[in-house]
Amino acid sequence: MSVLLIEPFYGGSHKQLMDVLQEELQEDCVLCTLPAKKWHWKARTSALYFMQTVPTSSNYRILFASSVLNLAELAALRPDLGKLKKVLYFHENQLAYPVQKCQERDFQYGYNQILSWFMPEHKLAHLEKVIGVKRNGDSYQSEGLPGQQESRAVMKTSDAHPESGLCEPQPGLCTTQHEGLPSPPAAPAQAEAPESTNPYQGEDKQCLTFNLSNILSGLDYQQRPLHIAWPHRWEHDKDPETFFKVLMKLKEQDLPFYVSVLGETFSEIPDIFSEAREVLGSSVLHWGYLPSKDDYFRALCTADVVISTAKHEFFGVAMIEAVHCGCYPLCPKALVYPEIFPAEYLYSTPEQLFKRLQNFCKRPDIVRKHLYKGETAGFSWAALGSKFRSLLAAEPREDL
Length: 400
Description:
Blueprint: E1 2-10, H1 12-24, E2 29-35, H2 39-53, E3 60-66, H3 71-77, H4 79-82, E4 85-89, H5 108-117, H6 121-130, E5 133-136, E6 139-142, H7 212-215, E7 226-230, H8 240-252, E8 257-261, H9 272-280, E9 284-287, H10 293-302, E10 305-307, H11 317-324, E11 328-332, H12 337-340, E12 346-347, H13 350-362, H14 365-368, H15 381-393
Parallel strand pairs: 1-2, 1-3, 3-4, 7-8, 7-10, 8-9, 10-11, 11-12
Antiparallel strand pairs: 5-6
């Protein structure tokens, strides 16, 4: 048996999921990928690329892909793959994805997802019977089935964090390993920079050398300013405008805080980032993507609060990782967040977010003594592994 894993955008949470599956199924899977660049081109053309590059094999039983792939096109271009049982994992909904500019939406990406997800009535009835998909009017919703939404994402906890690189499609097995989550350490005993030290080192707009441990040394942990983390992609759907405007307002009121902006950047960066970098000045503790997972999790473990201002979110891997590392989460009371986080961690307006942070800046001990009241264990591989294995172990059938 062989599971064919296809990921046209091998980066971020897309990469994380594929790495977990490949590590757990490494004796029985083939991973084919494209780099995490030029997302729109991958959505439009990756089926043609994989049609030519996915090796032919009579051992494939299951095709597992993210919805960046136009699965309908690939199945038409490669009839041998079209016969497989197929599992499509949606990281986002392109029909509801927020547009950056007020203009007519490019419908092609949502249309791709419709084509890839459409199933005839007898298949929907089969899903309802076999794997717990319940009818809700004219729509269907999953009851705990992994792989259909990112709200069933996987985190793998591990003490080792080997580097994993891009695995281009080629015959045989690929053996990259997942970089897992470390166990959150106890609060550091020493943690603040002397007042005369500017915590941002270097003149480049992105500081890629991790030096938070050095910056936060010198003063008592409980006395240092609040440390705020923003670990999201530098793109408009994460609404950095709202986040930075709240922080600028804190700065205007001379409230003490540090901020670490840790997310990954792509070709287009919203203008608010350069503006915020100048305004926030010495409050910036770290600015830029951390390629090392070890450094990234250390940064989260030194932070007090993690914030999301997202306009579109199916799950939010970065938020769960930060909570796992000990951060107090503040999320919009919208999207998927109320399904995951208890009510006390949700805010309804930017003004509410500002007031929460204003209080935390004045009393950072409130969040440092807080014990998270939600649950993250359900998103671990230990909890979800058996469900994924069951999903990927089912024998192919004519009616699937």
